[in-house]
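Ticket #4471: structure output looks truncated?

Reporter: J.K.
Steps to reproduce: submitted the chain below (481 residues) through the standard prediction queue, then opened the result file.
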Amino acid sequence: MTAVAVTDHGNLFGAVAFYAAARDKGIKPILGVEAYVAPGDRRDRTYTGVSDGGYHLVLLAENNRGWENLLCLCSEAYLTGFYFKPRIDRELLASHSEGLIAINGHLGSEIGEHLLAYERSGDEKWWEKALESARWHAGVFAGPPPRFFIELQHHVREQNSINKHLIRLARELSLPLVCDNDAHFLRAEDHDAHDTLICISMGKFKKDDSRLHYPQELYVKSPEQMRQLFEAEYGDVGREALDNTLRIAQRCNVELPIGQNNSPTVRIDLPSPQSLPRWDEARFGGDLTTWYKEYCSKFELKPFTSQPTAGDLKQAREECDRALRMLAEAGFIWRYGASVPDGSSEFRARLERELKILADKGISAYFLIVWDFVNWGRQRGIPALARGSGVGTMVGFVLGLSNACPVRYGLLFERFTDPDRSEFPDIDIDLCHVAVLAADVVDDVGPPVLAQIDIDVGELGAVRVGEPLEEQPVAHGTGVG
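Returned output as attached by the reporter:
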C-alpha cells in the first residue's frame, strides 16, 4: 500500500498527526472525514428519532483547497450544527465542495439508508429518494474528473443486500463506483480486544448476547484481500471499484504547511506623536496609571478585510513592531518612572533585547493582540493576568500583562522564547468573561483566525480505510493561550 486515508467520525483531530506519521513512513496520507449530514437544516434541533445525528458522508481532500473546506465544514459542524453529533448540511456542502471528493453508499449514509428501506419494503418511493440524493451529490461534486462516487462494501449482511441497488444506481446515473472497508481495529486478530473495549465502554459483560457486537470483518484489509473479495463477488464491477481507489489516491495531493510560520498578523493605526499624551502633563497630576491608560487608548488594532498581499503583511509587521515598541517604552515609564537613564539601566537593556528578539521572530503582533484584549478587559473592570512563561518577559510586565518585574525576581525571558527556538510561544492569560473578551478579539483579528480550545485531544482511531490506501462550542473557559 502506497497511500492510506483516515476518516474519523465528524472531526479532524487526528489528521495532522496522521499526516506526519504517514509521510515519515513514505506513505501518501489522504486527509478526510466521515461527516454527519443533517437530514434538513443543521441548525434545526427538533427531535424526530430518525437520523437526528445525521447521515454519514465520506469526504476526501483532493487538494489544499479541499483541505481548507474540510476545516471549515468540521468547524461549522460543531459551532452551528451540533445535535447528537457535529452535523453539516446540504447548504454547507454546496458552498464548500471545491477540492473535495465525496463517497456515499454504505449503511448509515443517506443513499444507503434509502436503499435499505427499498430492499426491505419494495416501495418505489425509497428508490426515488436514493435517486434524488445521488443526483444532488453528483451535481454538487461535479467533474470532470468525477468527484462523487457510489460506495460498495462487503462485510455486513444488510450492506451486501443493497449492493445490487447501488450498482444499478451508479449505472443509471453514469456515476463511478468505489469500494472500501470499514476499519474499527487494525488486524483480524484484534477483534476480541476491540470487543472487550466495547464492553468496557458500554458497561456490558462479554457473555451478554443482547449487547452490541461488531462484525469480525471490520479490520484493515490488504490490497490482495480486497481484490480477492470484490473480484470474486462482483467480477468486472468489483475490478472497476477497486481500480477507482487507486485513481482517487493518485488525485489526492494535499501539502500541509508543516513548519510554516503562521504567526498572527493584524493592522494597527499608529497614532502621530503629537496626538499622544505626555506623562508630565499637568492634567495627570503625576498619576502615571491614568496617563498610560489614555496613552494605550490611542492604539487600535484592526483585522484585514481582504486577503493581504505579501506587501501588506510586510507593512503590517513593521507597524506592529513600531507599535509594540511605543507601548513598551511608555509602559516602561509607567512601571519605573521617567528617571531611569536611557542605555545604562539593566532594566532598559532587558527591554531592548526582548523587543529585538520579538521583532526578529515576528511575534510583535501576537503580543499586541494579547495586550489589546487584556487592556480592553481591564478598562471595563474585567480582571486578567498572565501566568506561566509569559510572566518572565519584561515586555509583558511593562504592557501590564503581569505584575512581576522579571529583573527584580530573576525571571528568565528564555523560558518564553529565544532566538534559537523554532516553536511559537504562547501567553497564558487567566481572565473572567471569556465570551465577552473573545468577541472583542474577533473584532480585532477577524473570526477566521480565532479559536477557543477547552480540551486536550488524544489519539483517535481510524474508521475507514480504502484499498490503496480531524466539540461542542465553548461557552466558558478559565484561560486563553
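Triage note (M.O.): checked the attachment and the full C-alpha cell line is present. The chain has a mean pLDDT of 87.
Status: closed, working as intended.
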